[in-house]
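Researcher: Please translate sequence to structure tokens.
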Amino acid sequence: MNLDYFIASLPMLMPGHPPGITVAAFRVACAEHLSGRLRGAVEALLDDQAYPHPFVAAWRRHETGLRNAIARRRAARLGTDAQPWLRPDGSDEARISHGVAAAFEQPDPLQRERALNRLRWQAAEALQGIQPLTPEVLLAYAVKLRLLERGQALDAAAGRRRLDALAALP
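Model: Translation complete:
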């Protein structure tokens, strides 16, 4: 199958809406229609692993920068040094730091996590570029699908049940 057709055949992803495909089904479709470096890059993004592809490297740089900014923010709240948790990243620190600061202004952890996922979504869109049917669009799709699936698992009622279960431990 042609890459353009494959990309065009995928269901549209929208932030905050359930995806029309699961990560597992997307993985199967990619295994069927992709090969080589592109398939390896998609798998790496779905599994949050390193891979020798420019998009994967750029995504991991952004994610490391985001996690560093989160570690700095949490350390500042606790009055401790963040250095033990920081990793080299080479990302746009100022832009990420502002986004993380805004996310940490959210009134509860669920809203904060959703705000952080919006930052991730925006980064994936920036990495995909403006051309509609490129390998970068497919790679950004993998990132966005993973974000949506993870976001579906974040739910206030499930979080409350998990907290109650932890609080009930002897």
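Researcher: Any highlights?
Model: The chain has one domain: 3-167.
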